[in-house]
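Researcher: Next sequence.
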Amino acid sequence: EVSAGDKVSMALTNAGEVYVWGSGDTGLLGYEPKYGSDQDEDESYESEEEESVDMKAILEDGEARFPLKIRFFKQGVKKISCGSEHALAISMDSVVYSWGVNSFGQLGIGKTSDPIKTPVEVIGLEDHKIIQVAAGEEHSVLLSTEGQILTFGGTAKGKLGFGKSYAEVQLQPRPIIFSGDEKFCFISCGPENTLAISVEESSKSGFLYTWGAGFNGILGHGNREDCFHPKRCDFLGFRSIQFVKAKSGQYQTIAMDEKGVLWGCGRAEYVGMPDLSRPNHVFTTLSVINTMTKYQIQDFD
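Model: Next structure:
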């Protein structure tokens, strides 16, 4: 599994090890480097050899020039997500951790703070077992085994899904309450929006819901307005399509249905639409991409 933020890239190995490389100025390297022999011994290292390898990876300005193992996770990790300037991880024993920038409470530790450079446990999850995590620019999203969505962090433009008049920040995970009995199997974050796929008839696919910032038409609701509650994308013929994955960038959203067909909305030149005059605020099949190969698309990011 791989994930990337504004200035950092992250990878999870099949052995549960997390590697990160890039800028360390927001704390995303997962620990605070110590330079020089006069510093206290770093207890995260099991040997001088391990410490030597990491010191060679880090430049004097705190940047990792090649993959650096986050040694905090002794028990291993099974899921990661790297947002713009913060990250989330689920350990093998199902504890959710966060680190990085916390200006809007996106680390879920009950307060805002300066960047936190070593992983800390997200609070308020005693009654929830989390199986997926997603980090945006100023917010975070979790998915539980019960198919429930929990969000926290900055609330601007409705990206947490709690309504227009909600407080400016949510400092720990809070479940989104739906009017029906919706359960979900997938979550994802754009910089200022959130996406989720519902569970339909015990399958691994379902209907696509989006909410948050609607600029460039990236929510696929038929307009460019912000949405402050989760809303199902059912514009015209799109309402019956079953999806397995969806991702948003700053200017576009791409979704893949159960047949491996890609759909997109947002700025046409970034979505992959050859006809730039077509409406960009509803999902359209990406015919050029879908027909350029004889192989069925399995995944994307």
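Model: Residues 35-41 have pLDDT under 50 and may be disordered. The two ends are 11 Å apart (CA to CA).
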